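The records we work with from here on pair a chain with its fold. These numbers are not coordinates but entries in a learned vocabulary of local backbone shapes. To see the layout at work, look at the sequence and tokens printed below.

. . .
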Amino acid sequence: MAAALSASGNGKKVAIAEASPRVGRKLLATGNGRCNLINMQDAPYYGEAGFATEVLKHCGKEEVLSFFHNLGLVTREEDGGRVYPGCGQAAAVLDVLRRAMERCRVDIICDARTEKIEKSGDGFRVFAGEQVYACSKVIVTCGGMAGGKLGHDGAAYALLTRLGHTLKKPMPALVPLLAEKGAVKGLSGLRLPAVLTLCDGDRPVAAAAGEALFTDYGVSGICAMQLSAQVHGLQKAVLKMDFSPMLGLMPCRYERVSVQDGKAAYERMLAFLKKRAGLLPKEDLLCGLLPRLLAEKLQGLPLEKMAEKLCAFRVPLTGVRGFEYAQVTRGGIAAAEFDAATLQSKKVPGLYAAGEMLNVDGDCGGYNLLFAFASGMLAGRAAAK
């Protein structure tokens, strides 16, 4: 929709071929229905991260925010730089986009799943639904495979691979972690502030802080999901959970963090437990300190072992949940095969791609929508020239 609006100037005729019965269904599901459309902080990206950085140099967060303000959307910024519609409803974002497309006479053709794009002379033929559309320029913005019915099934990548583009293997990202059942047995439903460190065996790989949620299949919560894409390829994936924030031994943070030396956390935890043990009888040591479900797993352990588990609770992982539970796709069409200033293909003139279709993904917090809108706006502008 951002691409269509940006392309609609200069008397250009613009149409959207939408596979679903209506446009914007996935947008309505973002941010738990609130639509965290942008983040004003520095953006962490993965996949072809340098490409994302270049795109945002040509169309940055301030410009994307101005785009929405000019459409009439009122926004508010919350903690962590997250920007939401002022009314707190994702529908408001979709409403301003749809009304703007009506004003700009953008044709929206729903239930028109695009099966193939062919080069035809100086333009293209787009096979969508039962129709074939002739056009001079094509922008492919089919999104990724994440989100179950709101994502695509992978077939959309063929629209570009048939034209010579390369597909980097798609994987679910921002998705809950799967664990060995015994490691989380009896803890389902617990929500605890923690620092999570993803390890390959005992080697730390990445860390994130926030609220972790134990489930019957593993560990969820934003901090766990931030680490999910990096589980792929690890020989022995292990999650170590430090509950120091829950005990007031370090501040509660909700962000990616650098990997810390576990020795300092252990010494801090042990000193804390020894002080507590001097005040309370052994049988009451964990009462009022830990949720009962976790306390039952640690009750009776020596202080040293208890300290070890509280700052490095070990959860062996078996993988991650599938695309239907993921918020975003890691992988996709190779971004390097497109111009970061225009999103035009370096292989096929007149062909553009933007958003999650490309091998770019970001952390939770508005970064993925920011890249989608920015790349779509650049592609639309360039295609209209």
About this structure: The mean pLDDT is 95. DSSP finds twelve helices and 21 strands in the chain.
